[in-house]
Design goal:
Elements (H helix, E strand, L loop, with lengths): L3 H4 L3 E7 L5 E8 L6 E8 L15 E7 L3 E7 L3 E2 L5 E2 L20 E5 L6 E7 L8 E5 L9 E3 L3 H4 L5 E3 L5 E4 L2 H5 L2 H4 L14 H9 L15 E4 L11
Parallel strand pairs: 1-10
Antiparallel strand pairs: 1-2, 2-4, 3-5, 5-8, 6-7, 8-9, 9-14, 10-11, 12-13
Bound molecules: 2-acetamido-2-deoxy-beta-D-glucopyranose.
The site of 2-acetamido-2-deoxy-beta-D-glucopyranose has 3 residues, from helix 5.
Length: 241
């Protein structure tokens, strides 16, 4: 469990689903002290929440996804959009307020595969494409290993110099993945390193893993980073914010 003080400054995704209805309700909550613009991308199923929206500090927004949906959410920062939704962001940019594709890395990702109907839903927080903001997933209710997944650490502060992405105010706004920064097969798990057996953790992935043990630090991170939860129902875990 993340301690309560860290929850104030996370961009949070809560998942809840009813037993009777085979839909999962996502609650995206901005506990950062600044505005974020969540982006959504469906891998399977329809686009959720128009692909993206603005979320003020302390605000939350709920929307539901049908059983079988898979996809990801991320938080964009430093965005400027005009009234028609045109514009760009310092991190996680997707070309406009309403995304039609993924966000530009580095970006922390919340990833979901919803089975529903009594099956296990899978979720994880991934830093495989780098890091921009703290991100957590907290399932509400349900049975099985319904644990918190996420990264409550400030990896921008812990980011090695060679991975830092600077923003317009000359502050660190994101931390690149070593694969994006250097492109070596060792860091990207490609070529001779393309299997879990041949792509062990690296000095860089260890920095990510140490800061965020409950998140994927690289492509073949061990299975401690994916969580499952069955029949998520109501608020029986007493999640409060
Ligand atoms: C990681 O290892 C590489 C290759 O040995 C080295 O060049 C780099 O400085 C190391 N980085 C860190 C953060 O330890």
């Amino acid at each position: 469990m993340a301690n309560l003080s860290s929850i104030h400054i996370l961009f949070f995704v809560f998942i809840t689903s009813g037993i009777a209805v085979s839909a999962t309700v996502f609650t995206l909550q901005n506990n950062c002290p600044y505005t974020v613009w969540p982006g959504t991308l469906a891998g399977r199923g329809s686009k959720l929440a128009d692909g993206g929206f603005e979320l003020a500090p302390g605000a939350s927004r709920q929307f539901s996804a049908p059983a079988g949906w898979s996809g990801r959410f991320w938080a964009r920062t430093g965005c400027n959009f005009d009234s028609s939704g045109k514009g760009r962001c310092d991190t996680g940019d997707c070309g406009g307020l309403r995304c039609n594709g993924g966000g530009v890395p580095p970006v922390s990702l919340a990833e979901f595969t919803l089975v529903g109907d009594g099956g296990k839903d899978f979720y994880d927080v991934s830093l495989v494409d780098g890091y921009n903001v703290k991100l957590g997933i907290r399932p509400s209710g349900g049975s099985g290993d319904c644990r918190y997944a996420g990264c409550a650490a400030d990896l921008n502060a812990a980011c090695p110099n060679e991975l830092k992405v600077m923003g317009p105010q000359n502050n660190v706004v994101a931390c690149k993945s070593p694969c994006a920064a250097f492109g070596n097969s060792e860091y990207c798990c490609t070529g001779a390193f393309s299997t879990p057996q041949t792509c062990p953790p690296t000095n860089y992935s260890r920095i990510f893993k140490q800061a965020c043990p409950d998140a994927y630090s690289y492509a073949y991170d061990d299975e401690t980073s994916t969580f499952t939860c069955t029949g998520v129902k109501g608020n029986s875990c007493g999640v409060s914010t």
